[in-house]
């Protein structure tokens, strides 16, 4: 089966940042097989089954990489907004009571629906019951890294770390060689995993070098204080000592870093994911993205869970990524728009070690792409496509989403999920949450 | 003519923050005449001409107030993105060469199109040839304050301040008693107007207390240095000395303020407009919005020109307003979502002294309202409508926009402007800009 996208403004995000203002892209099966400028060539052997789509000048670009997410948590979206102690007051009690395979499935489906509609084609997730997340992504057609979380705060799916590791092993077995889903191990954070278990994860990881490790790192004052009080050093230094700083470590957040931390991260070639809306909304601070990138580290962009950042597309994150870097740098020069688009695509893919498969439009890669409409007045004039994508485009401008050659959305209609049922299922869970929150409020200190 | 909106999630933004999760709104002529919870009453005397619209549970709320804009500048959108010296390198030379009534008309029409599509019903504008802006807004149906700019940097429409004042007088005459358009005088900024002219504006303003004064204030280091070097005091203190700090002064930006400045502004009861995306993108800093509001000042939200902030709707500004306050405060508590929606509606209207006419859904006010779709998965679950509006809603969720009882958009189609022609006209000007920019690049130092 051949699909030919013609009359497209092709933004490739390849190494030369090639742009074809009028160009074409060819997809055969799961693979992007060719692309170029000008009118599309006549395709030999395409046969009667070839689909030719005139994009009417719209942007065709790589699908975006949401490099840090907790898909199941979309059912918490906006819960306890602006409440400083909501984690202990609402979220942990609700998680203990309600997190189940069914809840994870419902939340993940809502998130998959939103991401496909907003142009995300790859997501890195960490939460509980991750086989459910993997199954939802498989059905919805999303490329995903699914990480079993390990934590010591009585999490919903393991009583102790042995049980947690058993879940990891189950996940790794289930998705070995899967075309879309990559299993992952996800120690929650240094303070909530502990040094001994971090060391055990590092040992396990040395035997499974192809399994990405995801961890929240240098995110909160709580964590920084824990590292200082228990080890007399920075949280990065503790993580290094545990043996976790490796090229397969995906470090989410990375707010509280000094130059020595960044040097250490650079020496060990870890990967970073910035989550600007989540961090901004929590008032936690700004990640030094420019310094990290200048130190040679790939920095992807994550939405975090919808409880923290509310939306799961990447367009909503792009202006914050840019503004935060410019505010840190004190001028409009830092982190130009093209670099922000890079972070949302090929650099995010590199942060997840998926850059050989996805993140740019190049012949031989998987066909993970989106079409972005230029119909809105916001998108005009367009002096620079990267500026338009970062500062003017909305997730709702995405009209079509393809992963591995499969259309997940056409003309704004998601094809792989029942939108009405998915939203209704999530709202049903939210009604239970509301009842329980009212009860929790009556017993609040 | 009666219009009845039924089955609506009515977010009134009135003094009690009344919300009717299932309610109705009645409009007669230009006026919102009644609203309430539950099913809509049978309207006596509505006659056969009454239009009844079932909103299907969508949010109906006040149209938003964009309290600081340069509508004509949409033709500069994204021009010289990330270039630190773009003002002197591109923008001022382009303005000198190309700003004309026709260019102001074309840019303003593009901006009106975008704002109507994004749920803005009131805009405060300042630029040149403002009679064109007023005329565009009248035709498009937007409520507007149009401010003739006065500046000393060889602006495009006046050779000296006498000519500038003549333009102000013309504007005031033209729109006296106009139902939608309020004329305004707009000294550009302290450093670019000068103390003598600021004093002259203050004298003129004392004779015209109903004419709002708009000014960029405490925006840049350049300005702060000017005040210190020429007057040995803060830019707010200089402005006070010139006699401009009055309740009809609308101060845009307000980044570089100390506590004494805020006290002075509070004593004189000025109005403030924060422009978070514009300021963030320029790396200029964060306005102390919480301090200003705690000092009793109304703080509205502005997009600034599309050259600075790229988009002109307010939804794009809401998350940045919130995040910036939380980052300044270091927790998720500051400036709750409800206050951000307040700033975008009734408080913005108060900052423009238009709060008796617009900014909330209350019987007797002008019918300036929007309908916001809840169809997107982003909008679910909805624990709190203000959280959903601030952190999840997009300008593209606005399906219908009404100003003074007139539908400017229905079902996402703007009725008062020809979208295709408006976009084409703006792009035609952008082509001239591109040619001139290429020439300027060849002579750049």
Automatic annotation (TrEMBL), chains A, B:
The keyword Hydrolase applies. The keyword Hydrolase applies. It comes from the Bacteria. Keywords: Hydrolase. GO terms for molecular function: hydrolase activity, acting on carbon-nitrogen (but not peptide) bonds. InterPro entries: Amidohydro-rel, Metal-dep_hydrolase_composite, Metal_Hydrolase, MTA/SAH_deaminase. Pfam families: Amidohydro_1. Belongs to the metallo-dependent hydrolases superfamily. ATZ/TRZ family. The lineage of its organism: Bacteria, Pseudomonadati, Pseudomonadota, Alphaproteobacteria, Hyphomicrobiales. This is Amidohydrolase. Residues 59-407 form the Amidohydrolase-related domain. CDD domains: ATZ_TRZ_like.
């Amino acid at each position: 089966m051949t699909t030919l996208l013609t009359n497209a403004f092709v933004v490739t995000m390849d190494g030369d940042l090639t742009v074809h203002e009028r160009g074409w892209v060819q997809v055969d099966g799961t693979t992007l097989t060719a692309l170029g400028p000008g009118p599309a060539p006549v395709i030999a052997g395409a046969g009667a089954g070839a689909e030719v789509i005139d994009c009417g000048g719209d942007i065709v670009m790589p699908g975006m990489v949401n490099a840090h997410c907790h898909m199941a948590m979309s059912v918490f979206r906006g819960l306890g907004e602006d409440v400083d102690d909501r984690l202990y007051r609402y979220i942990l009690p609700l998680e203990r009571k309600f997190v189940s395979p069914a809840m994870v499935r419902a939340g993940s489906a809502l998130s998959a629906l939103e991401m496909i509609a907003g142009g995300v084609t790859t997501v890195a997730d960490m939460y509980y019951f991750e086989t459910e997340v993997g199954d939802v992504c498989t059905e919805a057609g999303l490329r995903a890294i699914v990480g079993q979380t390990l934590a010591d705060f009585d999490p919903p799916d393991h009583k102790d770390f042995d049980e947690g590791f058993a879940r990891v092993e189950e996940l790794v077995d289930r998705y070995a060689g899967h075309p879309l889903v990559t299993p992952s191990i996800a120690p929650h954070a240094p303070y909530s995993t502990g040094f001994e278990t971090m060391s055990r994860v590092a040992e396990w990881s040395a035997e499974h070098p192809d399994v990405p490790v995801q961890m929240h790192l240098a995110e909160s004052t709580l964590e920084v204080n824990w590292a200082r009080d228990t080890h007399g050093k920075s949280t990065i230094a503790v993580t290094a000592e545990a043996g976790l700083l490796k090229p397969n470590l995906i470090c989410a957040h990375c707010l509280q870093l000094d130059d020595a931390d960044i040097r250490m991260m650079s020496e060990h070639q870890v990967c970073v994911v910035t989550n600007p809306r989540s961090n901004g909304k929590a008032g936690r601070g700004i990640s030094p993205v420019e310094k990290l990138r200048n130190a040679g580290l790939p920095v992807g962009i994550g939405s975090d869970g919808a409880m923290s950042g509310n939306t799961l597309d990447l367009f909503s994150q792009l202006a914050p990524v840019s503004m935060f870097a410019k505010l840190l740098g004190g001028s409009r020069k830092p982190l130009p728009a093209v670099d922000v688009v890079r972070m949302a695509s090929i650099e995010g893919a590199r942060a997840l070690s998926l850059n050989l498969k996805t993140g740019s439009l190049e012949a031989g890669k998987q066909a993970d792409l989106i079409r972005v409409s230029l119909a809105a007045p916001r998108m005009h004039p367009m002096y620079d496509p990267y500026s338009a994508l970062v500062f003017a485009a909305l997730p709702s401008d995405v009209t079509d989403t393809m992963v591995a050659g499969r259309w997940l959305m056409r003309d704004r209609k998601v094809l792989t999920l029942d939108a009405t049922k998915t939203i209704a299922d999530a709202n049903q869970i939210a009604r239970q949450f509301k009842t329980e929150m009212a009860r929790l409020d009556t017993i609040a200190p």
